[in-house]
Amino acid sequence: MWHEYFLFLLKTVTLVVAVVFVVAAVVSVVAQARNAQSGESPLKPLKIRRLNDEIESRTKQLRQAIEKPAGGLKGAWARLRDRLPGRGDKDKGADEGGEQEASTQVSAAAPAEEGEKGGEAPRHYVLHFAGDIRASAVDALREEVSAVLQVARPGVDRVLLVLDSPGGVVPGYGLAAAQLARLRAAEVELVAIVDRVAASGGYMMAAVADRIVAAPFAIIGSIGVVAQLPNIHRLLKRNDIDVELHTAGQYKRTLTLLGENTEAGREKFREELEQAHLLFKQFLSRYRPSLDLERLATGEHWYGEDALELGLIDAIGTSDDLILDAVDRGDVFEISQPIKKRGLLAKLNASAQQALSEWRHPL
């Protein structure tokens, strides 16, 4: 009974997958035709926030709450105590000492922000990249970088990239890194800030930056390539189910989900993995030549403090440290490019188009 039930379930799943692919293909054709006719863009207007205003507003609210006179006998006593000779000077000295100490901490946490260039106050542009396996945020990143390049002053302004990504497919993260390289090519200083994780493809993006700052327990590294694919050929064979695969080209398909995999196909697949790994290491050598890749390109990851000792990052700190320090230096603008949400059919179409590419060589 269980054997027959499982066979029925397998046939049902196969039929559903086939129907989904057909529907997705039809939807793709229709959607492309509609977009071509209407000229509708998937992008929303660029969102720009001046962070100086928000931070100053919160600071003002907090100060008002702190400085609000207390009522009753306690408040009267506090006001009388503040009028005593020498009391004001003592508090003033304590405040100055506290401000000096706070300034030292910020400077230590954000060594990437050392001085201004050419006597001009820099403008800082804050970008965010939250990565998934597809690097789908690259669609927004490319628009944000293009916008910054239209107004940024080479050698003066800076971009703070708040990066959070465990990595993903090679083409997606390769394109994301290439977008950041446009900033380097335009001589716009780029600082990558990792609060949580920049691993594999995420670290490849961070490596493009002039400096990398990471939180003490942020996950850094994972310089390697991995791929996996289930194969149910033997199960199908036991149930007398044949799968035919026809290709033109010896290595058009090396490993398959349903067909019988050969040792020659496996060897070619491993060769492709090694090639992707080699390209990854060459890329890192270009932007961070001091890295000992023989030691570091093993697929391992490290926490922030250890990553600093190994040269994977340049300083310990958080995005909050660097943004507050940037506000003290000049205008800070957070830029984001909203993308219109796709409907269910559009998502099915995207999933169908990437179903074969996602398992191949994720970083």
Protein described:
Helices cover about 50% and strands about 15% of the residues. The protein is an alpha/beta fold and about 375 residues long. It has two domains: about 1-30; about 40-65 and about 75-245 and about 255-363, 2-enoyl-CoA Hydratase, Chain A, domain 1 (Alpha-Beta Complex), CATH 3.90.226. Strands 1, 2, 3, 4, 5, 6, 7, 8 and 9 form a nine-stranded mixed β-sheet that branches. Strand 3, helix 6 and strand 4 form a beta-alpha-beta unit. Helix 1 crosses helix 13 (about 345-355) and helix 5 packs parallel to helix 6 (about 170-185).
Descriptive labels:
363 residues, 2-enoyl-CoA Hydratase, Chain A, domain 1, 13% strand, elongated, disordered C terminus
Topology:
Blueprint: H1 2-38, E1 47-50, H2 51-67, H3 72-82, H4 87-109, E2 124-130, H5 138-151, E3 158-165, H6 170-185, E4 189-199, H7 201-207, E5 211-214, E6 219-221, H8 233-238, H9 263-287, H10 293-296, E7 301-303, H11 304-310, E8 315-316, H12 319-329, E9 332-336, H13 344-354
Parallel strand pairs: 2-3, 2-9, 3-4, 4-5, 4-6, 5-8
Antiparallel strand pairs: 1-9, 6-7
